[in-house]
């Protein structure tokens, strides 16, 4: 079976990507290397690494990494000891050195080897030449991203002008509220495809449809990200979830290739991360940030209402995504077509995928 596939850059002529990309394990393996191994992945929070020695561990596909604060510098390493591949960090916490849990080799926060007991008789073994393998790390607002590929363009190239566009929401000063995650029986790309279009809103999300001005809904494309404009329907009412107070209290929905979404509204941000778990499964993680985090989100009426509405929409999306995943396995279906008016975001995602997989 050929792993390469054709893809038309013109949405009016293009067919969607072949169904085998959603069901064949060969693509999951290829994506680990060519997609997740080369892009910026959301791995943690700045507040977890604000003081020297604070660290956390994370995983990008099969790769274990550790992120550490070393003075002014945020550093990232493969969490793999140079001796016999033990882990140099576990969970999260604060330490002034990283010590391997297997035979105790110790590394400085800059990744250089500090101590390796009983290695005196090893020939050509110099501590100075031993250094944990680095990964790229960068912070954006309260979020920490990592990229396994040392040659990948810096985070700013992927984010382009998002800083300026989201400036009025002051994301940098937002604080962590909480997280929720779902294991969904669909390929990670089915969930991302679904996120990237508003085309399904009238049919799948009747309640949300009442809140949004569907005619004004549009998706703006950039090199590595897209932005969905979903204006709230004007007016207010007793049954409304969102009360529109001014024309520019519009929400911003950013998607950054391949699997991170930042949903920013007045005073808060919700991040979504779609983690691939083989061809038929993904884990979707939502994390909330706010300027005024509630003391207890579970007991706060505003937050409980917000979460309940978010849960309702998520349940509707999960149901359709899982059904689509089943159908993508059918012998009767291979490729479909895009709505040039409504699915430019999905076409953009697929063209980036094509670019990275090629
Ligand atoms: S594997 Fe790390 S000290 Fe042996
Ligand atoms: Fe949806």
How are the SSEs ordered, and which strands pair?
Layout lengths: L19 H4 L1 H10 L6 E5 L8 E7 L2 E8 L2 E6 L13 E3 L3 E2 L6 E2 L5 E3 L18 E7 L2 E5 L7 H5 L2 H4 L9 E10 L3 H8 L5 H4 L1 H6 L6 E4 L3 E6 L20 E6 L3 E6 L2 E9 L5 E9 L10 H28 L15 H14 L1
Bound molecules: FE2/S2 (inorganic) cluster (FES) and fe (ii) ion (FE2).
The site of fe (ii) ion has 5 residues, from loops.
Binned, the helix content reads 10-25%
**In angstroms, what is the radius of gyration?**
22 Å
The total number of structural domains is 2
Number of helices: 9
Q: Which secondary-structure class do the elements indicate?
A: alpha+beta
Named CATH architecture of the largest domain: Alpha-Beta Complex
Number of strands: 17
Compute the separation of the termini in Å.
15 Å
Keywords:
23% helix; Naphthalene 1,2-dioxygenase Alpha Subunit, Chain A, domain 1; Rieske Iron-sulfur Protein; binds FE2/S2 (inorganic) cluster; 7-stranded antiparallel sheet; binds fe (ii) ion; 9 helices; 358 residues
Describe, in plain words, how this protein is organized in 3D.
The longest helix is centred in the C-terminal third of the chain and has 28 residues, at 301-328. This protein has helices at residues 20-23, 25-34, 155-159, 162-165, 188-195, 201-204, 206-211, 301-328, 344-357; strands spanning 41-45, 54-60, 63-70, 73-78, 92-94, 98-99, 106-107, 113-115, 134-140, 143-147, 175-184, 218-221, 225-230, 251-256, 260-265, 268-276, 282-290. Strands 1-10-9-4-3-2-5 form a 7-stranded antiparallel sheet, with no helix packed on it. It has 358 residues and is α+β, with helices and mostly antiparallel strands. 23% of the residues lie in helices and 27% in strands. The protein contains 9 helices and 17 strands. The protein folds into 2 domains: 20-38 and 168-357, Alpha-Beta Complex (Naphthalene 1,2-dioxygenase Alpha Subunit, Chain A, domain 1); 41-151, Rieske [2Fe-2S] iron-sulphur domain (Rieske Iron-sulfur Protein), CATH 2.102.10. The model has no long low-confidence stretch (mean pLDDT 94). The protein starts with 19 loop residues before the first helix and ends with a helix. Fe (ii) ion is lined by residues 194, 200, 204-205, 317.
């Amino acid at each position: 079976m050929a792993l390469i596939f054709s893809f038309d850059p013109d949405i009016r002529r293009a067919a969607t990507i072949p169904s085998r990309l959603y069901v064949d394990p060969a693509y999951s393996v290829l994506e680990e290397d060519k997609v997740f191994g080369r892009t910026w992945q959301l791995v943690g929070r700045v507040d977890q690494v604000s003081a020297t020695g604070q660290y956390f561990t994370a995983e990008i596909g099969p790769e274990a990494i550790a992120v550490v604060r070393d003075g002014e510098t945020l550093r990232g390493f493969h969490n793999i000891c140079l001796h016999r591949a033990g882990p140099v960090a576990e969970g999260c916490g604060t330490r002034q050195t990283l010590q391997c849990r297997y035979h105790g080799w110790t590394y400085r926060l800059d990744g250089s080897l500090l101590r390796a007991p009983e290695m005196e008789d090893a020939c050509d073994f110099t501590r100075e030449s031993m250094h944990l393998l680095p990964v790229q790390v960068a912070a954006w607002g309260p979020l920490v991203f990592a990229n396994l590929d040392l040659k990948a363009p810096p985070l700013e190239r992927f984010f382009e002008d998002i800083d300026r566009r989201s400036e009025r929401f002051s994301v940098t000063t937002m604080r962590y509220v909480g997280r929720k995650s779902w294991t969904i029986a669909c390929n990670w790309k089915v969930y991302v495809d679904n996120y990237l279009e508003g085309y399904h809103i009238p049919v799948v999300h009747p309640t949300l449809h009442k809140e949004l001005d569907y005619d004004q809904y549009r998706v703006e494309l950039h090199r590595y990200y897209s932005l969905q404009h979903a204006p709230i329907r004007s007016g207010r009412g007793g049954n409304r979830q969102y009360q529109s107070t001014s024309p520019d209290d519009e929400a911003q929905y950013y998607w950054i290739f391949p699997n991170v979404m930042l949903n920013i509204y007045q005073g808060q941000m919700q991040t979504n991360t779609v983690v691939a778990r083989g061809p038929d499964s993904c884990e979707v993680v939502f994390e909330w940030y706010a300027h005024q985090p509630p003391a207890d989100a579970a007991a706060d009426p505003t937050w409980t209402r917000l979460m309940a509405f978010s849960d309702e929409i998520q349940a509707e999306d999960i149901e359709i995504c899982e059904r689509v995943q089943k159908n993508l396995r059918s012998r009767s279906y291979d490729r479909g077509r895009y709505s040039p008016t409504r699915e430019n975001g999905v076409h953009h995602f697929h063209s980036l995928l094509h670019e990275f997989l090629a």
